[in-house]
Design goal:
The protein has a single domain, classed as AhpD-like. About 65% of the residues lie in helices and about 0% in strands.
């Protein structure tokens, strides 16, 4: 299938739900969790979930906010690169384990949690866990509805949802 199954923003309920999801995103932007980290987390979860729509959005939004091409290109291989801080690596590790819950018998390991807790306070950890949960939900919606990547322009999501 090469067409979206439903245009979420043209569906009354879909538009309402999208606006509520975006409101959570806006609230997360106001937390102490660095925006750079948030962008990396959303991109990595979207890569794991194979969501072209969300990869397109989050890579372009991150670039528009000043993220480098090198770092964006290396997100999928963050363990084997030198361009991410220890804090970002901790967030990416947590993202991967929380996104791949079905693949790991223990879910998020105590080691990964302790690593994240070393760099992020309790409020930031709540924001990080919520961000991971929200992007995973969004990925699953977009993949199920066959939302396609490739044509996104930075700022479009904010403009569409806030209209």
């Amino acid at each position: 299938m090469t067409e979206p199954r439903i245009d979420v923003m043209q569906n009354e309920l879909g538009a309402k739900l999208a606006k509520r999801l975006f409101a959570v995103h806006n609230l997360l932007q106001q937390t102490g969790l660095p925006h750079v980290t948030q962008n990396l987390v959303m991109l990595r979860a979207s890569q794991i979930n194979g969501c072209g729509h969300c990869i397109d959005i989050h890579s372009k939004e991150a670039a528009a906010e000043g993220e480098t091409t090198t770092r964006l290109n290396l997100v999928a291989g963050w363990r084997h690169s030198t361009v991410f801080t220890e804090e970002e690596q901790a967030a990416l590790a947590l993202t991967e384990e929380a996104t791949r819950l079905a693949d790991a018998s223990e879910g998020v390991s105590d080691e990964t949690w302790a690593r994240a807790a070393k760099y992020y306070d309790e409020d930031q950890l709540i924001a990080l866990v919520t961000l991971i949960a929200m992007i995973n939900a969004t990925n699953r919606m977009a993949v199920t509805l066959n939302q396609l990547g490739g044509s996104y322009e930075p700022g479009l999501m904010s403009a569409t949802v806030n209209s």
